[in-house]
Amino acid sequence: MKSLIPFLILSLFILVTSCTQNKKQIITEKIQYDVNIESPEPEYDWWIQNLVGPEREKLTNLLIDGVLDGKFQAYDYFNNPLTPEEVRQLFADTLLVTFKEVDPPYELYDSLIIRTIERSDIKRIRFLESWALDPETLEFEKTIYGIAPIARRDDYGDKVMWQPLFWIYTNDQFLSTLKN
Predict the structure, then answer these.
(1) What is the predicted pLDDT for the residue at 59?
(2) DSSP 3-state assignment of 93?
(3) Percent residues over pLDDT 90 in the chain
(4) Calpha distance 95→78 (Å, rounded)
(5) CB 170 within 8 A of CB 145
(6) How do the domains of the chain map onto residue ranges?
(7) What is the SS3 assignment for 14?
(8) Whole-angstrom distance, CA of residue 77 vs CA of residue 89
(9) Containing H/E element for 55?
(10) How many CB atoms are closer than 10 A to CB 47?
């Protein structure tokens, strides 16, 4: 009888742990997509593709201030580390453009164009995630590996561009897989 008790305890333990095993299946190890944090359509309900202004500002400030204060490490498009000063420079873009006079003698002249990015220009967040799914309950589990604030940029014409400013990665091991 004494030898039966440890066997029953072990059997019960195995039964309980097997019932609580993680049944999630990996859907994708990497997926990247943009999420609007300010609605592009004013007619939408306030919560569709939109964070309320103060919450949007808190998120934007958390990301930018965290990088500028050195709390979070920022990376460029190629996953190279950026210093806080390099990130600060991303918010002001200076271009030297050569134009041609429209009247004879059609001389060339240079013009300096300075474009700035304001925090209010950040309208989207780009996420880099992995997804897992429990096929029994359709419960999704997302793991965020990277976050990039994206600013709306006008090219002084009809074209609107979306510029990812920098990446913040939440997992150093994941970051090492991106460099391979």
Answers:
(1) 96
(2) strand
(3) 57
(4) 22
(5) yes
(6) 23-178
(7) helix
(8) 15
(9) helix 53-68
(10) 9
